[in-house]
Fold this protein.
Amino acid sequence: MLDMGCGLGLYLENYAGLSLGIDLSPANIEACKKKGLNVLLADANFFWTKKVWDSVLLVHVLEHLEDPSKTLINAWKNTNLRGRIIIVVPSLLCFMNGFNNLIGHRQFINETYVHHYLSRLGCKKIKSYTFPPISLPYFGRYQELRMVYQKR
């Protein structure tokens, strides 16, 4: 698994030894290395290895970028045939409730935007859903959109 924008390595911890994380933050990379995780300081727009991955994660990354299309295309390049690209972004509900004002959020990313780029590259949408499916008291006004695409 390749985690593009791995942050503090939450997902990498579950796939230690089988994964690689990249992030732009030296502090995040250092924290991951202290946990023994395989990480590199790299830009998701330009990162490439000779290895292609079964899964590429973009979890809460795209909304922080000036041009997310470059990262989507690069995720596709780093995914093997039949591999999956997993994307998580804040949902429309979050943006309607002020989450767009969070530090570093540059834009709202919706399913149409993601589908536009990945379908042109030959990816098939496997599933798309919001979590939680409804507004729940525990989660407050937070909801995220989760999308899974498969490279064909």
In short: The mean pLDDT is 89. The first strand starts at residue 2 and ends at 4. The chain is about 20% helix and 30% strand.
